[in-house]
Amino acid sequence: MADISSNFLGIKSPNPFWLASAPPTDKKINVLRAYEAGWGGVVWKTLGSQVKNVSSRYSSVDYHGSRVMGFNNIELISDRPLEINLKEITEVVKLFPDRAMIVSLMADSTREAWHELIKKCEDAGAMGFELNFGCPHGMTERGLGAAVGQDPEIAKMVVEWVMEKATIPVITKLTPNVHSVVPTGKACVEAGTNALSLINTIQSVTGVDLDTLVPNPYVAGKSVFGGYCGPAVKPIALKFLTTIAQNATTKKVPISGIGGISTWRDAVEFMLLGSSTVQVCTAAMKHGFRIVEDMCEGLNNWMDEKGFKTLNDFIGKSVSNITHWEDLDINYHHVANINQDKCIHCGLCYITCEDTSHQAINLDKGNPYNTYTIKEQDCVGCNLCKLVCPVDNCITMVEKRVAPEYINWKMWQEKGLPLNDH
Amino acid sequence: MIKNNRLTTEQYEHNFSDIKPPFETQDAALVEANRCLFCYDAPCTKACPTSIDVPKFIKQITTYNVKGSAHTIFQSNIMGAGCSKVCPVEKLCEGACVYNLMEEPPIPIAKLQRYSTEKAINNNWQYFERKKSNGKKVAVIGAGPAGLSCAHILTREGVDVTIYEKENKGGGLMTYGIAAYKVTPQFCEDEVNYILGIGGIEVKYNQELGKNISLEELQKNYDAIYIAFGVGLANKLNIPGEELEGVEDAITFIYNLRSKTYKEISVGDKVAVIGMGMTAIDAATQAKRLGAKEVTMVYRRTEAEKSCTQHELDIARLDGCATIWLAAPKEIVGENGKVKALICDVMQLAEPDAKGKPLPVPTGQTLTLNVDMIIKATGQNPYSNIISAYAIDNTKGKINIQQSATNVSKVFAGGDCVNGGKEVVDAVQAGKDGAASILSFLQIKN
Ligand SMILES: Cc1cc2nc3c(=O)[nH]c(=O)nc-3n(C[C@H](O)[C@H](O)[C@H](O)COP(=O)(O)OP(=O)(O)OC[C@H]3O[C@@H](n4cnc5c(N)ncnc54)[C@H](O)[C@@H]3O)c2cc1C
Ligand SMILES: Cc1cc2nc3c(=O)[nH]c(=O)nc-3n(C[C@H](O)[C@H](O)[C@H](O)COP(=O)(O)O)c2cc1C
Ligand code: SF4
């Protein structure tokens, strides 16, 4: 059996699965239940000045009969008194000393406020901090949250304040509401943050009610932009993660990956692209804490199958496999192949290729079942048909290199090779 | 003993309740609708005789466009609601669903079709507008599925349609023939009213061609005539004892069941049903559901040659009906003018006949079933008399057509009277084809 325990800057947890700073981690009852279910750690719901929430605060996007493909909230940081939070943190740490207890912070924008909050939390038993520079609503209007994360200069200043005081590891959580997370990430690393985490939620409108004509979530006839998360944001999170894992400065610190993680498979993908631990919010809010059981077992089985003994054996292994477009091999070519024994004759490959791709699928009419075959000479190898086919491994892509040697776009141009093959 | 009123009202209601209940909730419909893969050139559509765009109407359910979904269905099949309850979908759309090839249950297409169309009928969503009358007049004989479907398309194009119907209700066998646990009289009436709701169709009930009206008259008064009077007469067994009290044909038995209350319908204690087609199944199951103690279906070939679907046979078996294969009725024995027993030849299969079905031949042995009622379900005969009387070209009573036109001037035909008896959905398609031919004959462009 593989060892799935994690050591993040000295903060140990029996597995790399932490709950992200959010409602699942905002009080003792939840956190105890999470630990009992098997979660490796939590990032306690963000603490700061006392705030007041509105009642209606979540909305979501459903897709093709599946609920909560994307999730949206307009909630603020913890609305419970700081003293209660601190007391509960102490109690929880005492009961579960083997789990990671990170406390998320968003103090008012003064050095004193940050120092005071850091002191109190360290006294309460926090093992690490996560600086919330990401919350995209409510707090930004007060110059906090994403307002900090969107400006590298301000972020740098706040991290410096924190590093002056903190005696435990500091993770800075980045907002995705920027065109690149690298400038702020770099600024924070230069200011001394021990680690980075990403992503926080993405500003969004999940939809408009077609009866009331009011967007979601509905608050007395109005709505506001909320923060989007859940499975829908995973690809965006992975992209931002990769940029941090590849940048010369930011890659020096460990990363805690967040954004749309629902299963062990999602988690492994984040880890392959550079996350040392992963954090989960929406999936737990949708299904409860019990999902961690399969996350642990699935990760373990996968590691055994691949021969990885510890997490470090595979963390970051895919980072270098994302390259620049101009370095891709233009001589690589593959074509689709339809396995006629598996084909169920739904025609989905045909209609996508015919209407929107390269007219590379042949249709032989039958009653009631048509036969579909690939016109290899017309297939550009785009993968579309394979993606829409409802049967696993019915359409496969078969490698048919144009030439054996590697040639990229720059070399292609230098050689004056033909640009247009139509 | 043959008697009626065997069960309590609750028992009757339970026994004749909807055999394929609808989705209880929108969520339930959505779960299934969302499973649909939205196939291109979909096998289900090809397997539907009326070519309903199944993927489209199911997709419309998933977008909460139920109104559009029913429109899609009715565009191809104005009896889409009735069909959703009576079609043998296991050999039509659902049988072709690609999920079968994944060894997965097919999409419940009929149930989804019912979901949309029932809402349309209950809310009287009328999708089709009749064009201004163009002065052309067409007479339709028979208000069954073929006649109604033809009339609906004709009136849409501005033709003035008169339907002559010998019964006092519309719907044809939908109203008088199909098993009571598939459709209720109320539903049949609602469906007919919904179809007639477009306007421009006058139905003259209790008017029988050959009795109250003649073809010559119609030819004189109308620009075209569409014959859709189905098939009617039950086949005779031609064996001794057929005239005994307690011998009934399935069509009459079901006709009574569908037009009276359950309590009024008599069945025996021990019933033999002769035949193994859909009608035989319907007669057997309904006899059982009326309270007969034993029902035995008798067929002269084996299970492999049965003409009902496996699904239908399973229904009869689950109802507790027994089957005897390779037995051909030879004689009905009576006592005091009433049925006492059925004597059958025990058969064996010989070489296939012209249709490819193995021919049953007697072994010389017989078997005797002690029964007090015999229901004959050995097929129906076309109305050969009328057809011949008007010199309409036919094959064994089945009207011969070319693009729906008969050999007689202005006279078109379709449905059971042409195909000899298929399904409702085939009759609806025949009505569409008939209307198209009539429109082109009348030089009306649609
Ligand atoms: C017992 C039984 C069960 C069946 N079950 C099913 C089933 O479950 N599913 C399915 O899809 N199909 C079923 N069918 C078949 C289906 O009912 C027919 O295929 C369909 O109704 C044929 O439609 P039609 O319009 O051609 O004829 P019909 O439905 O027979 O309609 C003909 C109409 O013409 C009228 N008529 C007859 N003679 C005259 C006349 N001389 N003048 C004026 N009017 C006249 C009749 O009263 C009737 O209203 C069943 C048939 C039977 C007999
Ligand atoms: C209701 C809700 C409240 C949240 N509150 C906070 C918060 O207080 N502090 C914070 O850093 N992130 C907060 N987040 C963001 C999550 O920690 C996480 O970054 C984001 O939801 C992406 O992860 P997911 O896709 O697994 O949900 C919140 C998210 C949700 C859904
Ligand atoms: S890979 Fe693309 S081009 Fe080739 S057959 Fe499939 S859809 Fe068409």
Question: Largest inter-chain interface?
Answer: A-B, 17 and 20 residues
- Roughly how much helix do the residues of chain B carry, as a percent range? 25-40%
Assigned CATH architecture of the largest domain in chain B? 3-Layer(bba) Sandwich
Total of DSSP H or I helical runs spanning 4+ residues of chain A: 13
Low-confidence stretches of chain B: none
- How much of the sequence lies in strands of chain A comes to 15-25%
Oligomeric state as shown: heterodimer
Strand segment tally of chain B = 17
Number of helices of chain B: 18
Ions, cofactors and other ligands present here are: flavin-adenine dinucleotide, flavin mononucleotide, iron/sulfur cluster
CA-based shape of chain B: globular
Tally the beta strands of chain A: 18
CATH H level of the largest domain in chain B: which superfamily? Answer: FAD/NAD(P)-binding domain
In short:
The complex is a heterodimer of chains A (422) and B (446). Helices cover 31% and strands 20% of the residues of chain A.
Architecture overview:
The complex is a heterodimer of chains A (422) and B (446). By secondary structure, chain A is of the alpha/beta class. Chain A has helices at residues 28-37, 82-95, 111-124, 146-149, 152-165, 182-190, 234-246, 264-272, 282-287, 291-306, 348-356, 384-388, 409-414; strands spanning 6-8, 11-13, 17-19, 41-48, 58-63, 66-73, 100-106, 128-132, 170-173, 195-198, 202-204, 226-229, 255-258, 275-280, 334-338, 361-364, 371-374, 395-399. Chain A folds into two domains: 6-321, TIM Barrel (Alpha-Beta Barrel), CATH 3.20.20.70; 325-415, Alpha-Beta Plaits, CATH 3.30.70. In chain A, the strands form five sheets. Chain A has an eight-stranded parallel beta barrel, surrounded by eight helices. The longest helix of chain A is centred in the last third of the chain and has 16 residues, at 291-306. Chain A is globular and about 70 Å long. Chain B has 18 helices and 17 strands. In chain B, helix 6 (80-86) packs across helix 8 (109-122), helix 13 packs across helix 14 (278-289) and helix 14 (278-289) runs parallel beside helix 15. The longest helix of chain B has 18 residues, at 424-441. Chain B is globular and about 65 Å long. Classes of the chains: A alpha/beta (422), B alpha/beta (446). The complex binds flavin-adenine dinucleotide, flavin mononucleotide (FMN) and iron/sulfur cluster. Residues 86-87, 141-147, 164-167, 172-174, 177-178, 182, 208-210, 228-230, 232, 251, 254, 278-279, 282, 415-416, 421-425, 427 of chain B line the site of flavin-adenine dinucleotide.
